[in-house]
Specification:
Distance between the termini: 27 Å
Radius of gyration: 17 Å
Structural class: alpha/beta
Strand content: 15-25%
Number of strands: 7
């Protein structure tokens, strides 16, 4: 995959493709990586603000970007009935265990770069992005591309580390496992999505590992649900 696609328009930075390849391939599990149902349910409730979140996936054409080991897919299929589910990751190898273990005709596993997705305009009803945005140096480039493949009225559900938490902020200052980690704030998220034609439905900070703790300034995750309400006119 051409590293030039990772050259950022505004920050003058480059995504370190080889570093990400090394990091990603070292994370490949030997067995299927399945997130427990209760954790998936909690994540989706926090991100969408909707206890009946499965309805948002039913009868939809869904794209998951940065799917990694596809650890949420089985729970999604258990509680909803999408029309189509496409899981993408920068490295197809990272999904190899899931490809062998998940047998469902509606699922596709595709190599895909969030900055240059191999799909047509208006192809999907819903995009899922869990833990991917903080790996992109310029969030706007990724959101612009998501808006391209989404239909008007389509949704985006995401979750990422929240830099408002002092521990997360310190992690970015001291270094991370991956060289390609860049902090994002709630203010930045709202601004970039609004600029790209998205309307905010729900946004929250929350815990997953310690769900009994209330949301607030010490939460480590930020997640939300946006709807694409308009597209920029052709240039």
């Amino acid at each position: 995959m051409d590293a030039k696609v990772f050259e950022l328009k505004k920050q003058g930075k480059k995504f370190d493709l080889e570093a990400e390849r090394k990091y990603s391939l070292s994370e490949i599990p030997k067995l299927p990586n399945v997130t427990p149902a209760d954790k998936v349910d909690s994540l989706m409730r926090w991100c969408t603000g909707n206890s009946n979140w499965s309805e948002l996936l039913t009868d939809k054409k869904i794209l998951e970007v940065g799917a990694g080991e596809c650890s949420f897919v089985l729970r999604f299929l258990e509680v909803s009935k999408p029309k189509r589910y496409v899981a993408t990751d920068l490295f197809l190898e990272r999904m190899q265990v899931a490809r062998k273990s998940i047998n469902n005709p509606i699922i596709e596993f595709r190599e895909g770069n969030i900055l240059s997705l191999p799909f047509d305009e208006n192809e999907f009803d819903l995009v899922l992005a869990f833990g991917i945005f903080h790996h992109v140096p310029n969030l706007e480039d990724a959101v612009t591309e998501i808006a391209r493949v989404l239909k008007i009225g389509g949704g985006l559900i995401f979750r990422d580390p929240w830099v408002g938490n002092p521990a997360i902020w310190l992690k970015y200052r001291l270094g991370q496992k991956s060289k390609n980690e860049f902090p994002i704030s709630g203010k930045q998220i709202k601004s970039v999505f609004k600029k790209n034609g998205f309307g905010l439905i729900h946004l929250s900070t929350f815990w997953l590992r310690f769900p009994f703790l209330p949301p607030g300034p010490w939460s480590v995750n930020i997640g939300g649900f946006f709807e694409l309400v308009k597209k920029d006119p052709p240039k």
